[in-house]
Amino acid sequence: MRKMMSDKQDLLIIGGGLVGMTLALAAARQGFSSHVVDQADPAALTAEGFDGRASAISTASWNLFCNIGIGDALEPYACPIASIAVVDQMKPGRLDFTPEPGDGSLGRMFANRQLRQALFDAAAQEPLIHWHAPAQIAEQHRGEHGVSAILADGHELRAALMVGAEGRQSPSREDAGLQMAKWDYHHRAMIVGLDHSKPHDNVAWEIFYPAGPFALLPMLDGPDGQHRSALVWTVAEKDAAGVLKLSDRAFLHEVEKRMGDILGTIMLNSARTSYPLSFQHTARIIGDRLALVGDSAHGMHPIAGQGLNLGLRDVGALVDVLNEARRLGLDIGDTQMLKRYENWRALDSVMVMAATDGLTRLFGVPGRIASAVRRFGMGGVQRTPILKKWFMDEARGMSGDLPELLKA
Prior knowledge:
By secondary structure, the chain is α+β, with helices and mostly antiparallel strands. The chain has helices at 18-29, 42-45, 59-67, 71-74, 112-124, 171-175, 237-245, 248-259, 307-327, 335-363, 368-382, 385-396; strands spanning 8-14, 34-37, 54-57, 79-80, 83-88, 95-97, 108-111, 129-132, 137-142, 147-151, 156-164, 180-196, 203-209, 212-219, 227-236, 266-268, 273-282, 286-287, 290-292, 298-299. It has a single domain (8-181, 278-406), classed as FAD/NAD(P)-binding domain, CATH 3.50.50.
């Protein structure tokens, strides 16, 4: 990995995860240089093995990956999502989202490790990216004429614009005093990889229970041809510790109770991990010479798998704004240009987050009457092609004012 540089770059990106590194590559392809600082060791993040963590990449996000030159490297690891099946507690009244022939898939599933590997390999070959990892930031500063970060080893990194891409606990956001609206769902997402005897037929399942959604996401077959899916199971916080302590056999029994026989006999193929679920949204995603992207700006429930895709739309919009600033001969840290980025992202992020939060609450209402009402509504959508197409366009990320890099 490229060693320390003390010269000034265009961007100082704090956080080199999926969103931060995508931004660095997207900016580099447009001629913008960057320092990328991350405290994690890239070798640990790309270690062999499937840990169950996976992401649904929408059509728009896939366009972005192709446009920044990593589509070919990723394609062999993609599992297309041909259909999404939505059910309420495995009761009758299934809602299917299946595109028309010729419309393509609803997205692609990837193991997070493969996404990181492709991004990191491309970044290591990109001369405009100066990558510092693992590295700790001792101090960071934003001034009238530029930004800087001093690393724990004393190196100073300077740039015109700082981008906070550290995730939900963003120090850059806190340092800028940007206030968040947030609440805790008091739930945890349990994540694990499954091998199963029946093929998934490229169907993603979203099974709703009052305690939270239970999602089965199709993955490529394993090295020995075994059928694979990723499970994201939401459980109440008060039950999470107990679920994590279950033996593998008892855990699989609980999983089978919730998914029936749709995938046949199941086995675990990774360790179980979990993380708390919360909602957080920053109304202001810019400060003086600062822009926030990804989870630093907005964190949502994983119910619709849109968190990473929302962050990648941030990337596309910010790069468009940087290009516009350069075309007009403006400083890329110019407040008015950054305001354009904030305004562009405001409506989209609020709508997506409100929709995911609303779904979480709607399907969390217990009782037979509530379930019957939900299934009646799902039946109405199932019989209304124009509504189904709208939902599918939203899932693909192809609605609204798309940044150039997210277009085919």
